[in-house]
Amino acid sequence: MEKFLERFDRLLTFWCVLLTGAMTIAVITLVFSRYVLGITFIWAEESISVLFYATTYFGAALGVRCDEHIRIDYFTSKMPPSLERPVKVLQIVVVILLQVFLLRVGINWIAKVGGTLTPGLRIPVKFLYVMFPVNAVIVTFYESVRLVSLFRGKKLPACTGRAENEIQPV
C-alpha cells in the first residue's frame, strides 16, 4: 500500500505542477496578447479560470494528504494525551462523511446542469464540474488511509509531494 500511496502522491503532485505551469504560461500569454497585441480571447480567460479551479481542487486534496489542511488545534492541544487518538478518529470520520455527502451532491449537481455549455470554450460544464466529486474521492481515499494507519498504530508514510528543502514551522 505504501508504494501505491507514494506513486499516487507523486502523480498528484506532478498533475498539480503541470496545471500550475499551464496556468502560468496561459496568464503570461494572455497578458502579452492583450497589452502588446491588443487582442483578447474570452476562451483564453475562461481556460485560465478552469486551470485555477483545478489547481485549487487537486492542490487541496494534496494538502489533505500532507496534513496541511485547515484545522484548529487549539482545543485538541489542550486535551489529555489519552483523548488524542479518539479525537483524531472523530475528525477523520467527520471529514469522510462530509466528503461522501459532497460526492453525492456533486454527482447530482452534474446530472442537473452538466449539459450546459461554457460561454468561451463551448464545452459541457460537466467536464469542468467533475473536478468536485473527484476531489471528494481523493480526499476520502487519503483520510481512509490515515484512519487505517491510526488503527494499526503505524505512522502514515511521509508526504512525497513536499519539497525536501522546505522550511517547516516550529
Q: Which value, in Å, is the CA radius of gyration?
A: 20 Å
Outline: elongated
Helix and strand succession?
A: HHHHHH
The helix-and-strand class reads mainly alpha
The number of strands is 0
Low-confidence parts: none
Compute the separation of the termini in Å.
30 Å
Q: What is the number of helical segments per DSSP (H or I, 4+ residues)?
A: 6
Task: Please bin the fraction of helical residues.
Answer: over 70%
Which key features would you list for this structure?
elongated, mainly alpha, 70% helix, single chain, 170 residues, 6 helices
Short overview:
The chain has 170 residues and is mainly alpha-helical. Helices cover 70% and strands 0% of the residues.
Overall description:
With about 170 residues, the protein is mostly helical. The chain has helices at about 1-35, 40-65, 75-80, 85-115, 125-130, 130-150. The radius of gyration is 20 Å and the shape is elongated.
Question: What's the helix and strand layout?
Answer:
Elements: H1 2-35, H2 42-65, H3 74-78, H4 84-113, H5 126-129, H6 131-152
Helix pairs in contact: 1-2, 2-6, 4-6
